[in-house]
Amino acid sequence: MAQIKRAIAFASLLSLGFPLVSAVAFEGAVGFGSIATGGTTSYVVTTLADSGTGTFRDAVSESGRNITFSVSGYIVLESPVSLSSDLTINGQTAPSPGIGVMAREISASGKSNIIIRNFRMRQGNEETDDTKSAFNMGDATNVILDHCSVAFGVYDSIDAVGAVNVTVSNSIIALPIGQQFGAHLETGPSTWYANLWVSAHNRQPLSKGNTQYINNIIYNYQAAYTVADTGGDFSHDIINNYFITGPSTTSASDDYYQIDDNQSVYASGNFLDSNKDGVLNGAAANTVGSAEVLSSPWYSTSLSMASLTAAEAYSYVIANAGASPRDEVDTYVVSTVESLGTEGAIITNQDSTGLSNDGYGTL
């Protein structure tokens, strides 16, 4: 039965044109979103203003653009920003200390072929609509976020209901407020690779789709990898991740949450550190609820992608995840993880961090 389910899942991806080729979005891109093509027409963001010529809002208002930045700092959004299709957002081009947005949602809803790199999205309680997420890519196609930093999400940190061909890699997804949820994806397929998930109540991610979940670090969770009640039959490759409990963790066994017998799972090389003793000393954790156990990954690239052990992934993610250079928020987030069980909290307001700029930190 497991082999049949895996074959059906694989065949369905082929029939819909899902990628079986090397990454094309940029050198080092991985996973299902790596086929995103982005934009080619140059546009330089020259001001931190919310609107007008030279602004981020104007930059993303037309499709086909390849966006760079000559300014650094926070762009304080007065209203949500809707992206166009066929965009590349090169946050790595901003002068030090980097670029980001705060206070409102960034939405790629219904759009396609979007590449976002080295970009900070910090929604927070300046958001006036509690149904909005820090980044929304509902019903989007071919999207990759790499080395991004998403914090203080209100509805979800990342919302991807109905999204197809998604990668979130080398990113920090931390400190959601409001619902206190990390990410919600439906449809898929999706790839979550080498991300740092910190201090969320649940959805790290909630994945109702065929999924690769590889080399992630999940800290101070109440529920981590989640499927929840669903009528869908999905396949999940969960490989070489490290789950680490913290002060807010009420049940270490909720590292895998609500994974029922509709699901097929290949789980290998995962570890759980549950003793909160300040030392990384976990044990193997590859039992995933009542899911049907796969003897090999459902997708062909999963094993080659899982090049790091869980312990090696911890070191790599701690050193590399998020937008570069690290700002005040990400430095704070990483420091709580490095306490290995002794620090961290699930919060309802970014001001609880005690950081500058009403908790948003200063860029």
TrEMBL record:
The keyword Oxidoreductase does not apply. This is Polysaccharide lyase family 1 protein. GO terms for molecular function: lyase activity; metal ion binding. Keywords: Glycoprotein, Lyase, Metal-binding, Signal. It comes from the Eukaryota. InterPro entries: Pectin_lyas_fold (IPR012334), Pectin_lyase_fold/virulence (IPR011050), Polysaccharide_Lyase_1 (IPR052063). Residues 1-23 form the signal peptide.
